[in-house]
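User: quick one, fold this
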Amino acid sequence: MILTRAIGLTLLLLLLGMLSPSNAAEADLRAIIAKFATASNFSATEAVVRELAATGDTAVERPLGALAEGDLYVRKADSLVFIGKAAGGSVELLDPLSGEKSGDAAKSEITKIKVNNTLRRAIRDALGTLTLGAKNPAARTAAADTMFRTPDATNIEPLDAAIASESVASVKALLEQARAASVLVSDRPEADKLAAVALIGGRGDRNALSLLTAVEANSEGAVKDAATAAIANINSTLALWDAGQNIWYGISLGSVLLLAAIGLAITFGVMGVINMAHGEMVMLGAYTTFVVQEVIRTSFPGLFDWSLVIALPLAFSVAALVGLVIERGVIRFLYGRPLETLLATWGVSLILQQSVRTIFGPTNQEVGNPSWMSGSFGIGQLAVTWNRLWILVFALGVFAVLLYVMKRTPWGLQMRAVTANRRMAASMGIRTPWVDALTFALGSGIAGIAGVALSQIDNVSPNLGRGYIIDSFMVVVFGGVGNLWGTLVGAFSLGIVNKFLEPYAGAVLGKIVVLVLIILFIQKRPRGLFALKGRSVEA
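Assistant:
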């Protein structure tokens, strides 16, 4: 019996020993939180915030978050600290650690702990420090990035502990960079700071450049020299990445120009028609996308991610049908008279713009991005948006399909025959009027699906097509009238040249420079980069 009691007493003492650390830890946290009641200014409050963060206990996230939101109060009667939630004329008091309700108080019975922007930043940094021990690597990565951008000497010890326990190599590298940033703003020895400069210089991004610039301005001797050398290396690296970014922007713009111009290249090459209403076919495709998304939003919201897939055939059909009507109703009476064709299609473009204004109004319409076209990702220092990437893939896909139609189908053979020699094609039994009509419908339909793509990156308005018609003609003339490969090369060439000129000349002057360069080029090669072969085109 005595032995049993002794064993029970021993187990009880062991259990109390196991529980006492957590109880002691909670008591310590409450003692620190109580210091908010006696903090006389923002600096004193910030000191309490940093003391809480130094504990490394995630339980302090609740009171720190409440403080950042302005929801932390001191009860005047006993100087206890609570989280307060307004409830009518009174305030509901919650325990700062557990969140359990601790009663109500009139607003006159409590005092709000004031915060300012400096204190909010300190709280944000403190919460970032706490997430260093999070289970999710993404949370630890975000914490390391926050601490790198807002270095503080007090972060060194928590970062040392986090680095020692980190098992993911990429996260560990970020933590080491964050520690190096904190070393640079501390009073650590010069050797430590030189090592930190070398580590941050190897990072090579704009955040590292900003940090090292501040170090260069506030340091002397070897540290200043090391920071200057690291800045020079980063600038040279970023110059290369900037060139790569401009190339990507140019390719992205080129894919848009390719979509807008490829239909025009077909109609211009086969029919010799200067279609000033081509931009309005793009506009009709964009508005078709808007209508499809409106129907899906109101009736089938679960299909929103499929809205563009649904809109593509509809936009092609609408634009192709309108194009067929224009060709049969107007253009077929004006063949051989390019000036009259230009004026007539310009009038048609005005009619289409006004019709859309009447139906949908003059303001921009909202067209959303599906989830798979939203967001961006990075490749080194390149920023690539998903919508631009998908538009590039889509433009190349349209080009490949059209190339197949032109080269591998009977209709494509007839189109090429009419382009090369219309009279000979007619004498061989090809119905050239219907080739013209279907070609114009095809070019218009392609412009319509271009509108689907452009609705994801531009404002959908009655003036949407107007911004692309001039660029489309420049692409067609530069690449070679009616030549698909010329259109592809011309679109990407003009897109890249535009993006390299814009930082120096501006968007408008850049376009003027490109136009002048094209005019000079056409003086040397009147048929463009890739001239078509055939008796008619050579006549």
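User: anything notable?
Assistant: The chain has a mean pLDDT of 82.
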